[in-house]
Prior knowledge:
- By secondary structure, this protein is an all-alpha fold.
- Helix content is 86%, strand content 0%.
Amino acid sequence: MNIRSNFDSNLNQLKDMLMDMARLTESSIQDSIQVLINQDLEQAKDIIDRDNAIDELENDINDKAISLIAMEAPVARDLRKIIVALKISSEVERIADNAVNIAKSTLHIDNEKLIKEIVDIPKMMDMALKMLSDSLQSFLQEDVALARKCAEDDDKVDEMYGMLVKELMGYLQQNPNNTNQITQLAFVCRYIERVADHSTNIAEHVIYLVTGKRYDLNA
């Protein structure tokens, strides 16, 4: 195997590790919303425990990237590929942390009767998860147009976030005995909004990978 083929093989392994991490994270995020809807406290604890595996994968990705840089001494675009993989793994890890945060909010709500059926929060999460999926695909395909689309979708998530928090705050006066639950649901909305923000960050890293220039897609 020549030097170029060896580098490409190692880079593909790095990408595969990153996609494994992303799949685990997407699963945790999806499960965290179901756990909230069902008030499944045992599953909430399982999501929290699962985060260790995601953290370990991030560490493995970091080790792999450092090894690649040390052995191959890449420059220009090759170096950007490794740096961007590292940055994306950090964003994915933070998204996984939000799954943990949602699970913790479920534990804080406990078995308290919900003030209303949880319908809009899952819709907001679907939007954020679509952004995550698109941003990761833009990385795999080095697709700048798909990466830029994340900024447009982030505006929609922000709009829904504002609407839901305003609605929840309106419940506070009507339901003073449910302050804890209302507050935790507002936190959940914030965690979902952060998933969208981290997805946008991934998209920005992709644009840097392809163009060599940094862009703020929220500007």
